[in-house]
Structures are given as C-alpha cells and as structure tokens.
Amino acid sequence: MIVIVGAGLAGLVCAKCLVGAGVRDVVLLEAEAEPGGRVRSRITPEGFVLDRGFQVLLDSYPAVRRHLDIAALRPRYFESGAILHDRERAWTVADPRRHPGDLLSTATGGMFGVADKARLVALVGELLLTPDERLLGRCASDADVSTAQFLWSRGFSRDITERFFRPFFGGVFLDDPLGTSAGLFRYYLKKFATGRALLPAGGIGDIPRQLAASLPPGTLRTNCRVERLSRVGNRVDTVVTARGEEISCDALLLATEAPATARLLERPPAGEPPHGTTVVYFASDHALYARAMLALPRGRGRLVRHFVPLTNVAPEYAPPGVHLLCATVLDRRGLPDDALSAAVVNEISEFYPAAAGLMRPLSIIDVPYGQHQQRAGFARNLPPAPARTTLENVWLAGDQTGACSIQSAMAGGERAAHLLAGLAAG
Ligand SMILES: Cc1cc2nc3c(=O)[nH]c(=O)nc-3n(C[C@H](O)[C@H](O)[C@H](O)COP(=O)(O)OP(=O)(O)OC[C@H]3O[C@@H](n4cnc5c(N)ncnc54)[C@H](O)[C@@H]3O)c2cc1C
C-alpha cells in the first residue's frame, strides 16, 4: 500500500498520477474535511465565494497545463495590469507580461520615468529568453540575492519599487520587505509575463475539487488526521490516525506542510517563522472601480497590501447585484476583527472616499501558515521532491521541498508519483 499524507495540491496530483499509472493500492489521507490544503474556498449561505487567502491560478504554469482542465474550471481572467495608487492620484498601468512594449506607451503616462520603463522592458525580455530551470536554479545558488537588493542592483528607482514592485510582489510573496529570493522574483515575473492570472468561477477551491474528482472512490479519505508513524527498524510500516486506525504501508509520502512534517517525523520545526496573511472581505452594492485588476497602494508598512473587487473578475463570487471586495493584509497588528475592518475601510477610503459608505464587513480569514521563508538561496537546503528522509520508505513532496507555489506543489507531486509507481511496479 502506498500512503500519501496530505491532500493539498501535491498529494492530490501524486494520487492522480499513481492512479493514472495503474497503481491500485494507494490511499490519500487528509486531516481536514475537504481536500486542497492552502487552496480552499467556502460558499456562505448568502452565496459569497470566500477563498482562504487571496490567490490566483497562472495558466502559464506547466504542471497546471498538464493536470488541470482549465476550461472546466470556468476561468475568469484578470486584466493584464494594475491600478497604482498614491494619495494624490491613481494610474492604470499595462502589465508588461503580454505586451512588454506597453510600458513605453502613453498607457503609463507620467507614472514611471523612461529609465525605469526601459529597465523593466529589458528585464522582461531577458527573462523570456531564460529557461525556467535556470531561474529556479538560482534560488539554490550562493549568488542569489533578495528581491529588494536585486531591484536596487538593476537600477530601478525607489519610485517604481514603492508604487509597483513592493505592493505587487509583496502581496505575491506575503513579504512586504521583499526579502524573498530574487531567483523566485524573476521566475514569477516571467510567469506573469507569459501567462494570465485567473480565478475559477466557483472559487479557488475548485482546483483541488477537480483533482479529487479524478480519483476512484475510497482513495481520498478526509477527516483522517495522521497522528503518528509506527516504525520497524528504519522503515515506517504503519500510519496511525487520530481515531486510532492503523493503516499498513509499504511506501509513505508526506505531502504535508513543513511544521506538520516535522511533527510526524518527530524532529524540531526547521527554519524561520512562516509568512502569514489575513484576507478581509466586504460586500458592497457598488464596485469601487470597474477594472478586473488589483489596486496597489503605494509604499511600505501599509495595513492593506492590495485590494480588488473580486466580482469585477468573477461575478459568480457574489449573489446577483452584489459585489465582493477583498483586501489582503500581511500583518493585522493584533487588531480585533471590528477594528481591522474599520482600519481597512479607512485606508481604502484614502483612494476611494465613497468606500466608507459602501463596504459592509463580511468575513475575515486568517492564514497563519501562508508561505515558508524563501530568502536568497533558500532552495540550497531543500532537496526537490521526492525528497528522501532518513527513513528508508518515506519521501517528502509539496512546497516544503521547494518554492511556495501551485506549480512547485503540483510538479513535486508528479515527480513523487513517478518514483512511487516505479517502486510499486517492482
Ligand atoms: C494566501 C496564499 C496565497 C498564495 N498565492 C499563491 C499564488 O497566487 N500562486 C501560487 O502559485 N501559489 C500561491 N500560494 C502558494 C500555494 O498555495 C502553496 O504553495 C501550495 O498550495 C502548497 O500545496 P501543498 O500541497 O504543498 O501543501 P498544502 O496545501 O499545505 O497541503 C498540505 C495538506 O496536508 C494536510 N495535513 C497536514 N498534516 C496532516 C496530517 N497529520 N494528517 C493528514 N493530513 C495532514 C493539510 O491539512 C493540507 O491539506 C499561496 C499560498 C497562500 C496561503
């Protein structure tokens, strides 16, 4: 029996590939009531779709193309751009991902200097010519630096960093100081440049639901938390669930998030505290603006990193006639819910004065474990999935073995399946 623990994207893709390879004795154990891990959503009784943290699916991820039927997800696409705000003005800028030349056009007006535009176009052009493996390889290299250092070393001005790079990539990495690896920054910039960001009409949780639907009945067992691993010598021969059930195993894949893996392997949690986030949802009778784009407030240390009327992208996220807005907060500063909602409305009102009368607090979702720290060279200490452990028949997959991304989780699950299918075959 092959046992996979954790039905996040890594575990789901691994199970899907094993089943597809004809392996029959495979079980996927998930602690929660539904699969998806960090990619989940719920629908409220009123009909709002609330994703557990703002995130998007990039259709340029190779593993996404291999494993998801994007059309069946009813994709709702973001426009290629963002609305950049400071106190005085808002600028709608074209995203360089699809039309690098747009930044040189009047679309950005006086937003950035000519030198910044030229640097951005040159950087995107360079990334388009660099293979993904090389960009990601940099994350494991001594030569890697932080995103903030990289932007500075490439001559980008403080202006473009504070107006665009920090609000946008601070939100992507859940890391306002931009201490995240420049290798990863370059990889993401390329993926945004070559693909489109989308939300499934039914919520981000439709991604794991689609993967789970490809599994034969009984393969995925939810509400099934693995409590401990029982060893014989240097092998795990049984996993024991919280309900005391014992499941024998020939090979075990831990597709769990890093702290859960450390608990199961009885080792101290590794590394620095993770990046968390809080998403604050509001209902409104009017969207604050019409575009299907993120709004990015300028500067560092803001409560709201970005906000967006999600229904501008996916009208299905709210009941007819109502809008759903979400604001991403990286550090809620200990504020209780009421005070947090009020402070978020306050910040957004700086840019949209009507917001105060429009935005009705709906829900607040904390995601304490969002992404592990991905500082310069972070991948040096993370052997890619399937990563060996000191136990003979136990491997690791999931973003704990690499970058925090849907691509990394799915591709690692795929590689782990390849190894496990080989073992099962004999
Ligand atoms: C707010 C947020 C925004 C993000 N934005 C993006 C984005 O825009 N684009 C992108 O590509 N990536 C994004 N990511 C990252 C991406 O979502 C993750 O890297 C990816 O989903 C991780 O998948 P995983 O399968 O490795 O782990 P997880 O999703 O963490 O899955 C692990 C699973 O293991 C289960 N588990 C743990 N312990 C046990 C146990 N003892 N027994 C049984 N089950 C157990 C958990 O319940 C969970 O379901 C974002 C993440 C967050 C949180």
CATH topology description of the largest domain: FAD/NAD(P)-binding domain
Q: What's the end-to-end separation, in Å?
A: 13 Å
Principal-axis shape: globular
Unreliable stretches (pLDDT < 50, length at least 5) are 103-108
- Give the distinct bound molecules: flavin-adenine dinucleotide
Strand and helix layout:
Elements (H helix, E strand, L loop, with lengths): L1 E4 L3 H12 L5 E4 L11 E3 L5 E3 L5 E2 L3 H6 L7 E3 L3 E5 L4 E5 L19 H15 L3 H6 L9 H7 L4 H16 L8 H13 L2 E4 L5 H8 L6 E2 L4 E7 L2 E7 L4 E3 L2 E4 L3 H7 L10 E10 L9 E4 L6 E6 H4 L9 E7 L7 H15 L3 H4 L1 E12 L15 E2 L5 E3 L9 H20 L1
Parallel strand pairs: 1-2, 1-14, 2-10, 7-16, 14-21
Antiparallel strand pairs: 3-4, 5-9, 6-9, 7-8, 11-12, 12-13, 15-18, 15-19, 17-18, 20-21
Helix pairs in contact: 1-8, 1-13, 5-7
The structure holds flavin-adenine dinucleotide.
Can you walk me through this structure?
The chain is globular, with a radius of gyration of 22 Å. The longest helix is centred in the last third of the chain and has 20 residues, at about 405-425. Mean pLDDT is about 90; it is low at about 105-110. The protein is built from 13 helices and 21 strands. The chain is an alpha/beta fold and about 425 residues long. It has helices at about 10-20, 60-65, 115-130, 130-135, 145-155, 160-175, 180-195, 205-215, 260-265, 310-315, 335-350, 355-360, 405-425; strands at about 1-5, 25-30, 40-45, 50, 55-60, 75, 80-85, 90-95, 195-200, 220, 225-230, 235-240, 245-250, 250-255, 275-285, 295, 305-310, 325-330, 360-370, 385-390, 395. It binds flavin-adenine dinucleotide. Flavin-adenine dinucleotide binds next to helix 1, helix 9, strand 19 and helix 13.
